[in-house]
DNA sequence: CACTCAATAATGTGATATCATTTTTAAAAT
DNA sequence: ATTTTAAAAATGATATCACATTATTGAGTG
């Protein structure tokens, strides 16, 4: 029997998307980002087509796009799965994420305005509220919104696609971390980032972003992987 | 009348590719990389399908993949073009390329072996031969092979897709630089990279890679853009 | 009970058809 | 000549179909 894939993602509604393919892409992307699809799950075009009530064509497009972004892995036998995390890959991903986000923040610095800082403060305030509610999905999205707002302050930035790809690759694992690590403290380094922006201190900004990435997933991710290896 | 797209790329032959889509992708990728398709050229699925004697389906897959990698731009009206280079985008791309390649080199350092160094020397020797022949296409490919060999020494690296994307975005412009800048010196920083690898000096490696990117395209690219703005 | 292997089902790929939208064209109007 | 505009052609998006390849199943065998 076919193993049904859980897509318990808030239905976004096909409206507002120019094409069906884009709708499927955004839906699957958020499912991967938020870890709604378990690593190891194999995806089939026809299966998803039935599940979403569409023809395989737009599904195929969306899956290809996701595989371009390393969000889904194409096996030799043409099967597609959400990759499982391994310790070495994890280390590479967080190192790359740090490099990319520090780069993006530094390149955004010249474009920081008071308006943008206020926008970031607003997002961060909303995050504080969601931390109390322990709403992890919403928190993940807000966290990404915070970082994306900062990095896209630079109107010519070319780094967001790479950052998105890394986020996608870490998404499913982060969900596992949140679920399985008991004491998952959300430490908010955004205050430091905002402080650095206010005084236009690029070195302080760099290290604040670096710490944000480290505290956000690196430490607890390593713990989970160590526990998995021991078992 | 339809403007025919020049695809004067050495026919690679459909053999050796698992799927037609992959063949089209590799063919178009090398065309973009080597600048065989002029920036501003608009690509149509049906046009390419006729040109390559295939159905639109695999063409579509390949184009979508290339657009995921920012090699082709999708306009609002669903048209696709090879993007033209602008000064600000160029600065972002070379800065990102530097960041990514320095990162990749540093993460590869622990995996460097004597065998790998010899492989790099072999590629570099071949480059020296091609420099004399002024064979720019072959040189570009060898240069990429040199860098890819270094970065993929790390078996867990996750940065190559991002580097490939940047290479693709700089490809068409680099061709223009080679063609239009009179004195296009190819300065070979690979000797420095190899020397740094031999003595396992990571800071020397970082700055050698940085200089290699700068000398390779940054300086002459800026000159061309300045000349274009003046005109 | 474990294993082999053939038949059956399911899958990804690529081609074709249809449709709404966009681009091109060329004739008409100024 | 230049602009307007309506008809024609071309295009991308999606659905459907055919086919070769791969996975699954289950009966037979040890």
From TrEMBL, chains A, B:
Gene3D superfamilies linked: GntR ligand-binding domain-like (1.20.120.530), Winged helix-like DNA-binding domain superfamily/Winged helix DNA-binding domain (1.10.10.10)
Domain HTH gntR-type: start-end pairs: 18-85
Top-rank taxon: Bacteria
Alphabetized Pfam families for the sequence: FCD (PF07729), GntR (PF00392)
Keywords (A to Z) from UniProt: DNA-binding, Transcription, Transcription regulation
Gene Ontology molecular function terms on file: DNA binding; DNA-binding transcription factor activity
Cited PANTHER family: HTH-TYPE TRANSCRIPTIONAL REGULATOR MCBR, TRANSCRIPTIONAL REGULATOR, GNTR FAMILY
Protein name: HTH-type transcriptional regulator McbR
Organism: Pacificibacter marinus
Name of the gene: mcbR_1
């Amino acid at each position: 029997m076919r193993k049904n894939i859980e897509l318990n993602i808030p239905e976004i509604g096909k409206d507002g998307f120019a094409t069906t393919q884009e709708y499927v892409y955004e839906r699957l992307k958020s499912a991967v980002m938020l870890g709604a699809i378990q690593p190891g799950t194999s995806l089939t075009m026809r299966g998803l087509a039935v599940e979403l009530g569409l023809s395989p064509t737009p599904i195929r497009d969306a899956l290809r796009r996701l595989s371009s972004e390393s969000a889904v892995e194409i096996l030799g036998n043409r099967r597609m799965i959400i990759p499982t995390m391994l310790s070495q890959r994890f280390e590479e991903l967080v190192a790359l994420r740090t490099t990319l986000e520090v780069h993006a923040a530094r390149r955004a610095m010249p474009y920081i305005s008071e308006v943008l800082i206020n926008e970031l403060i607003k997002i961060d305030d909303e995050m504080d509220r969601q931390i109390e509610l322990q709403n992890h999905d919403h928190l993940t999205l807000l966290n990404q919104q915070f970082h994306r707002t900062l990095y896209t302050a630079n109107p010519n930035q070319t780094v967001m696609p790479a950052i998105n790809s890394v986020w996608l690759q870490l998404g499913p694992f982060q969900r596992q971390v949140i679920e399985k690590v008991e004491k998952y403290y959300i430490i908010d380094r955004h205050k430091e980032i905002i402080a650095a922006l206010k005084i236009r201190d690029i070195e302080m900004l760099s290290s604040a972003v670096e710490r944000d990435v480290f505290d956000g997933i690196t430490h607890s991710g390593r713990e989970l992987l160590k526990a998995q290896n021991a078992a």
